[in-house]
Design brief:
Number of strands: 8
Strand order of the largest sheet: 5-4-3-6-7-8
CATH class: Alpha Beta
Radius of gyration: 20 Å
Largest sheet: 6 strands, parallel
Bound molecules: pyridoxal-5'-phosphate
């Protein structure tokens, strides 16, 4: 049967009827190939639309330093020439826009100086939105090294009870941490809010359980605004991650037997490094913003992605 032998299997149906099959990141190809060894599966790694996901302050910056980037985002590799103080100024503007929206939506005033961590995606169990709260004593100890705050967003599917419970858990931790580590959960996550978030935070956090993240795209959006990621090595991040250059990893890329506790421990080991760099090495942080744009925004965009689909899939 085209759609499986016992019941309708949409994946089998698609695999049997498609003229070409590809994963949306290299790891996604490997995992899918292991699940369906009888089909030839290639990969085209996802990208995001550069002009859409670049905030106004960074558009202006790129217009000045990387002419032609709107038509040809691969040119963003030239971001290496943007001076640190201009990156910081553009980021500061994007951060203030986000904090104003946070104030409007929640009534809370977040600090412009605190390391601001963003976490926004569909609220579902494998994404582990609460991983950073696994050990509050540990998190509080890290907070004493420097101010820290978190901005969350993301809706659960109406029938995803686990996802809804995850949001309630994050809200409970937010109340418990109160003013010590401000945590806000923004309602109605949508594209407009996502644009403010991926540009306005200092660090993009992603903690899915491996190997569940096929690609992930929000870290690519953050990269277009010079925002480094702290993420589990899964999906696109395996390809985009250079430790201390485009962000930081949690865990290892190789298939392993890590538990949630292992990943949380690694997250807590990395956070002080991030905080230290952000608080005390602004030049180093600016160099990372530059590398994130030059290495990741220049590649993880739809311009490159569509070219790959054309040459490796449609025109083959
Ligand atoms: C980008 C985006 C997503 C997907 O983010 P992932 O990192 O791929 O999970 C979901 N919702 C909105 C509103 C987005 O902008």
């Amino acid at each position: 049967m085209l759609s499986g032998s016992d019941r309708l299997n949409m994946t089998r149906l698609a695999l049997n009827l498609a003229g070409h099959v590809n994963g949306v990141a290299r790891r996604h190809r490997e995992v899918s190939q292991g699940m369906f060894p009888e089909y030839a599966i290639s990969s085209v790694t996802n990208g995001v639309h550069s002009v859409t996901w670049t905030s106004e302050p960074f558009r202006i910056l790129y217009d000045r330093h990387v002419p032609g980037w709107r038509e040809e985002p691969t040119l963003l590799r030239q971001a290496m020439r943007i001076p640190a103080e201009e990156l910081w100024r553009a980021h500061g503007e994007a951060k203030r826009s986000l904090l104003m929206e946070v104030k409007r939506l929640t009534g809370r005033t977040l600090s412009e100086d605190a390391l601001t961590i963003g976490f926004a995606r569909r609220a579902t169990a494998y994404k582990r939105a609460d991983l950073i709260f696994s050990d509050l004593a540990r998190l509080r100890a890290i907070r004493r090294m420097g101010p820290l705050q978190l901005v969350y967003a993301g809706k659960a599917h109406p029938r995803d009870e686990g996802g809804k419970e995850l949001i309630r858990r994050v809200m409970r931790f937010a109340r418990e941490l109160d003013e010590e580590i401000p945590v806000v959960y923004l309602p109605d996550y949508g594209v407009e809010l996502a644009k403010l978030l991926v540009a306005g935070v200092d660090l993009w956090l992603n903690t899915p359980r491996r190997p569940m993240e096929a690609s992930g795209t929000s870290g690519m959006k953050a990269a277009h605004n010079g925002v480094p990621s702290l993420s589990i090595l899964d999906g696109w991040w395996i390809e985009g991650h250079v430790e201390g250059v485009t962000g930081w990893s949690i865990g290892r890329a190789e298939a392993g037997t890590e538990t949630d506790a292992d990943d949380a421990a690694d997250l807590y080991a990395k956070l002080p490094i991030v905080l230290e760099t952000f608080q005390h090495a602004p030049e180093r942080w600016a160099a990372m913003m530059r590398s994130v744009i030059a290495l990741n925004a220049s590649f993880f965009n739809t311009y490159r992605m569509v070219l790959e689909y054309a040459t490796n899939a449609y025109l083959l």
